[in-house]
From TrEMBL:
<dbReference type="InterPro" id="IPR036412">
    <property type="entry name" value="HAD-like_sf"/>
</dbReference>
<dbReference type="Pfam" id="PF13419">
    <property type="entry name" value="HAD_2"/>
</dbReference>
<dbReference type="InterPro" id="IPR006549">
    <property type="entry name" value="HAD-SF_hydro_IIIA"/>
</dbReference>
<dbReference type="GO" id="GO:0005737">
    <property type="term" value="C:cytoplasm"/>
</dbReference>
<dbReference type="InterPro" id="IPR010021">
    <property type="entry name" value="PGPP1/Gep4"/>
</dbReference>
<dbReference type="InterPro" id="IPR041492">
    <property type="entry name" value="HAD_2"/>
</dbReference>
<protein>
    <submittedName>
        <fullName>HAD family hydrolase</fullName>
    </submittedName>
</protein>
<dbReference type="InterPro" id="IPR006439">
    <property type="entry name" value="HAD-SF_hydro_IA"/>
</dbReference>
<dbReference type="InterPro" id="IPR023214">
    <property type="entry name" value="HAD_sf"/>
</dbReference>
<keyword id="KW-0378">Hydrolase</keyword>
<dbReference type="GO" id="GO:0008962">
    <property type="term" value="F:phosphatidylglycerophosphatase activity"/>
</dbReference>
Amino acid sequence: MFSKYKPTWMIEAIYQLTPEQLKKHNIKGILTDLDNTLIAWNNPKGTKEFHDWMNQMENAGIPVIVVSNNNRRRVSKAVEKINLDFIHGALKPLSFGIHRGVDKLGIDANQVVMVGDQIMTDIRAANAAGIRSILVKPIVNTDSWKTKFNRGMEKIVMRHLLKKHPGMIWKGDLE
């Protein structure tokens, strides 16, 4: 029952992903959640680390598309200055937004990874869509009011997953 919430990998932060790691795992495109994964939910402009990581992916030819449950206005405001493509109203944990993202990337789903900070939405949606996933720790320890319920459920699910899969540990890379 809980296996539909199990991430393929768990790393501390999206910014630890490098083009070399991705290429080693035949990943040619990234779908990512926005809030608390790519940027802090309360800092829509992002940090220097965010901009450096985006430049690294762009220079390596690895496209990044935001897949967010947020509305168009919120997502476009966050990504407009870096010309980042996005899917808004993704309906995660359903696979609808993930499939749209894979279609936009124009590459095989087995060459795409979804990165997110929530197992209840991001990881569940990736698993439902049949693509690999990376769970990251939230950038900040606070959440918008919409996310607080999910965080409580996430703790219960993680306890069950960790009992069944003791190898699920936070790492600094995909190895």
